[in-house]
Amino acid sequence: MRIVVCAVLGFALGALPFSWILGRLFGGLDIRNLGSGNVGATNLARSLGWRLGLVALGLDAAKGAAAVLLARRIAPGIESASLWAGGMAVLGHMVTPLLRFRGGKGVATGAGVFAIVEPRALLVALAVFTLTVAIGRMVSLASVIACVTLPLAALALGAEPGRLILAILVGALVIARHRPNLVRILDGTENRVGGAR
User: Fold this and answer.
1) How does pLDDT run across 150-169, given as a tens digit for each residue?
2) Would you say residue 194 has pLDDT above 70?
3) What is the pLDDT of residues 19-66, one digit of tens each?
4) Domain-wise residue ranges, the chain
5) CA gyration radius for the chain?
């Protein structure tokens, strides 16, 4: 029962659409009608400025971390409870009922989850993300490559099976949400950092 409670609470936390909330509060605008239409920190940063985007990024990561930490308080010693909470937080971010099941892509929320669940693997993925952005200047491409890197790093670092499975599942979900970006990358029309194509 506690696992179910943790999963539901994780989803509820993940479903908080911070980018949409910040867009309404500080710009009076619906982020779904701006830029890519994605309810995430990158689109908010492109639409209303990088400072607001960084705040949204931090809040999205925090809710992922909070879901795991809350589950550990509710169900101490039950590893699966925190893993379910983390996974459901990412899913809640992607399909928030508060915005008719339109959400973000789960990158920041997933990072928050793995900052607690598997921090060493996350550091490797973040390093790869940073390097990819520096070279290719595409956040979407960097996100996809980081999602491939995360489970590989977790495996190499000896992560427990449940954590490895979560890394694979979350990575697959995030990559699936980037499908339109991957199409634009292949077409040469994807946005780059700095606004160039």
Assistant:
1) 999 999 999 999 999 999 99
2) no
3) 999 999 988 889 999 888 889 898 998 888 989 999 999 999 999 999
4) 1-117, 119-197
5) 16
Helices (H), 28-105: 41-48, 50-74, 79-94
Spatial contact of 54 and 67, defined as CB atoms under 8 Å apart: no
What is the rounded CA–CA span in Å between residue 78 and residue 103? 29
- Tokens at 187, concatenated: 């077409």
Residues 6+ apart with CB under 8 A from 158: none
- The 10 Å Cβ neighbour count of residue 191 is 19
At residue 149's C-alpha, the angle toward residues 147 and 153, to 5°, is 125
**Of 39-53, 67-81, 135-149, 165-179, the least confident:** 39-53
Query: Residues, the chain, total?
Result: 197
Whether the predicted model's global pTM rises above the 0.90 cut? yes
Nearest to 43 by CA among 58, 53, 54, 51: 53
Token pair listed for 38: 């994605």
